[in-house]
Specification:
Pfam families: ICMT
Protein name: Isoprenylcysteine carboxyl methyltransferase (ICMT) family protein
Number of helices: 16
Number of strands: 2
Keywords: Membrane, Transmembrane, Transmembrane helix
Distance between the termini: 6 Å
Strand order of the largest sheet: 1-2
Largest sheet: 2 strands, antiparallel
Helix content: 55-70%
Low-confidence stretches: 1-9
GO cellular component, one term: membrane
Radius of gyration: 23 Å
Structural class: mainly alpha
Strand content: under 5%
Mean pLDDT: 93
Shape: globular
Membrane topology: Multi-pass membrane protein
Length: about 425
């Protein structure tokens, strides 16, 4: 039995500070959902455009808090001064803009060389780029000019890259340059996917909402909640990859340093996942949870509610990041929302939902097929387990994460369960 002294110690053991409070993410989500509701009947906007407007509502809400309430640009991690600390140098700004243009040119060349990006699949992303390009052309010089006078460190990664490319000057420390380029590669891979997924999900959300409104006490409501959960996840994922800015303290601190970490993350996404899941670890059979429980309506409702709860937990884990969500990078440690319970709430919720949706242990073709599907899903679970481990190993270099990991070991959900069983 846990002593009263131990209990008091846990009560007086607050969680480490979170880079973004969960309530701010929820406020952004509320603004997003309100925006979607207000433009639901707009004939001038299709589903993808409505989702884009909703993402802007998230950015405006969360960024307003970060800039005017939390004033995150004053945090030591932002590396910025309250007031200008040097005279503006047009030459330095021009060199940084040249480095940025070279980064864009390199990413564009990769897109051009890889046939994957030539098809219609990525059309929503190209549309987004065409929309944002004029604003980027105006905002980038202004942003770099402001940063030039407020950034404490003059020789940032962009200036180092410009000197290397224009003058052949090798930096004395390559790490800032490596981290900056790795961060851009993460964005170059994931932002197109998030944009495409969100565009596809927007059309599904419109259809499922109409069906749910017409039949609120049916499976249509589950499908709507299913689509809505992923919509919330994708919206915060998209704005996370868009808002990598030091003024918001949402810049990349570090990127995953190991090939294994990159491998297990990238294979979970297109174009790799479609090949792997269809050829090697296909866990879905001919029966899913809804038709499996067709003859048991009460259990069917309970099962569906549990799936929705898991998916909402998964979405809330992404919402917790505010404007900082990103795979393979550290952009500030999150300790709020579902992360008060465990270090990997998204992975746990997602993997449990896989089992509950696909029910691989139910297979009309017999126990051998069921066993094969279960083994395949276990393989998927192991991939996410390795992702979790590589992420932890990467983040342990951050003292904020070490403090959070120690706090979870004392106060997380599994620690509480272990104490309850003593």
């Amino acid at each position: 039995m846990t002593s009263s002294i131990d209990t008091l110690a846990h009560v007086d053991d607050p969680a480490p500070h979170s880079a973004t409070p969960f309530t701010v993410g929820l406020a952004g989500m509320a603004a997003c959902l309100l925006t979607l509701w207000l433009v639901r009947d707009s004939t001038a906007l299709d589903g993808a455009a409505r989702s884009t407007v909703a993402c802007l509502a998230i950015i405006a809400t969360v960024a307003a808090y970060e800039l005017f309430v939390a004033r995150v640009y004053l945090r030591p991690s932002a590396g910025l001064a309250r007031r200008g600390i040097r005279t503006l140098s047009i030459a330095r700004v021009a060199m940084r803009l040249t480095a940025l243009a070279c980064v864009y040119a390199g990413i564009g060349t990769i897109y051009w060389l890889l046939p994957e990006y030539h098809g219609a699949f990525y059309k929503p992303f190209w549309s987004l780029i065409a929309t944002l390009a004029p604003y980027e052309a105006v905002a980038a010089p202004l942003y770099f000019a402001w940063m030039d006078t407020h950034q404490r460190e003059i020789d940032d990664a962009y200036l180092l890259l410009a000197r290397l490319l224009l003058r052949g000057e090798r930096p004395s420390n390559w790490r800032p340059l490596r981290e900056m380029l790795a961060g851009w590669m993460v964005k170059a891979f994931f932002l197109p996917l998030m944009t495409v997924y969100l565009s596809t999900n927007a059309a599904q959300l419109d259809t499922s909402l109409s069906a749910a409104l017409n039949a609120p006490f049916s499976l249509a409501t589950f499908r709507f909640m299913y689509d809505l959960s992923f919509a919330m996840d994708l919206m915060f994922g998209t704005v996370g990859y868009l808002c990598t800015l030091r003024i918001l303290d949402s810049h990349v601190r570090s990127a995953e340093p190991t090939a294994l970490g990159w491998l297990v993350a990238l294979i979970c996404y297109q174009p790799f996942w479609s090949l792997i899941s269809s050829q090697y670890i296909r866990y879905e059979g001919s029966v899913f949870w809804d038709n499996w429980l067709m003859s048991m309506p009460v259990l069917r409702i309970m099962w569906g509610a549990a799936i929705v709860a898991l998916l909402l937990c998964y979405a809330c884990a992404t919402i917790s990041f505010g404007l900082r969500f990103s795979n393979l990078t550290n952009r500030g440690i999150i300790t709020s929302g579902p992360y008060r319970l465990t270090k990997h709430p998204a992975y746990i919720a997602k993997n449990l939902s896989y089992w509950m949706v696909s029910v691989p242990f139910v297979e009309p073709l017999g126990w051998r097929a069921a066993l094969s599907h279960c083994a395949a899903l276990v393989a998927v679970n192991l991939i996410y387990f390795v992702r979790a481990r590589t992420e932890e190993r990467h983040l342990m270099s951050d003292p904020d994460y070490r403090a959070y990991a120690e706090w979870i070991d004392r106060n997380g959900l599994f620690a509480r369960m272990a104490r309850a069983l003593r």
